[in-house]
């Protein structure tokens, strides 16, 4: 887990513990078919400016976002672990969203980590059927952590 050198102390303050972050990722990854290999995920925390630049470069959206995920190239990886990809999180955006949505910050992090990990595993939400499948899985995994259904919460807003 890395922190961007440009990330301010105020933005770092709300980042949950490594244990909480790892638990959310591990839960999402246990559902995968990794053929017994350990899956490796790079987790980085970026400033609003850093994630906005990447969001513009890769998604043509020139504003900060809560998270981005980038799958590793698909290939056979000899050895004990397989790189799955990168997850980039923006604490400033995540904190603001949690406050605006009235969600506990740690639960919002858990949701975004599970959501991002599922993207690395090949899930998507571009089509309605895919979105329903991905959201159902996210909701089931979050319930195992005692986190309320984030999609139900959004529908009630």
From TrEMBL:
Keyword Methyltransferase: no
Keywords linked to the UniProt accession: Cytoplasm, Endonuclease, Hydrolase, Metal-binding, Nuclease, Ribosome biogenesis, rRNA processing, Zinc
Stored Gene3D superfamilies: Metalloproteases ('zincins'), catalytic domain
GO BP term, example: rRNA processing
Note accompanying the cofactor annotation: Binds 1 zinc ion.
A GO MF label: metalloendopeptidase activity
Keyword rRNA-binding: no
Location of the protein in the cell: Cytoplasm
Source organism, top-level taxon: Bacteria
Binding site for Zn(2+): 115, 119, 125
Cofactor: Zn(2+)
Main location: cytoplasm
UniProt-listed Enzyme Commission number(s): 3.1.-.-
Enzyme class, UniProt record, top EC level: hydrolase
A single Gene Ontology CC term: cytoplasm
Family in the record: Belongs to the endoribonuclease YbeY family.
Function summary: Single strand-specific metallo-endoribonuclease involved in late-stage 70S ribosome quality control and in maturation of the 3' terminus of the 16S rRNA.
PANTHER family: ENDORIBONUCLEASE YBEY, CHLOROPLASTIC (PTHR46986:SF1)
Protein name as it appears in the record: Endoribonuclease YbeY
Organism listed in the record: Igneacidithiobacillus copahuensis
């Amino acid at each position: 887990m890395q922190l961007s050198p440009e990330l301010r102390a105020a933005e770092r303050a709300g980042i949950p513990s490594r244990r909480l972050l790892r638990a959310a990722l591990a839960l999402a990854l246990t559902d995968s078919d990794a053929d017994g290999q350990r899956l490796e995920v790079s987790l980085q925390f970026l400033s609003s400016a850093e994630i906005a630049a990447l969001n513009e470069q890769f998604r043509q959206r020139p504003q900060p976002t809560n998270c981005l995920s980038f799958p590793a190239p698909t290939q056979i990886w000899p050895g004990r672990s397989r790189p799955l990809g990168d997850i980039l999180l923006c604490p400033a955006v995540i904190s603001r969203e949690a406050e605006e949505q009235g969600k506990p910050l740690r639960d919002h992090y858990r949701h975004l980590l599970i959501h991002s990990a599922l993207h690395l595993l090949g899930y998507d939400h571009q089509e309605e059927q895919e979105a329903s499948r991905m959201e159902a899985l996210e909701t089931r995994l979050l319930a195992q952590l005692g986190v309320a259904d984030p999609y139900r919460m959004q529908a009630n807003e």
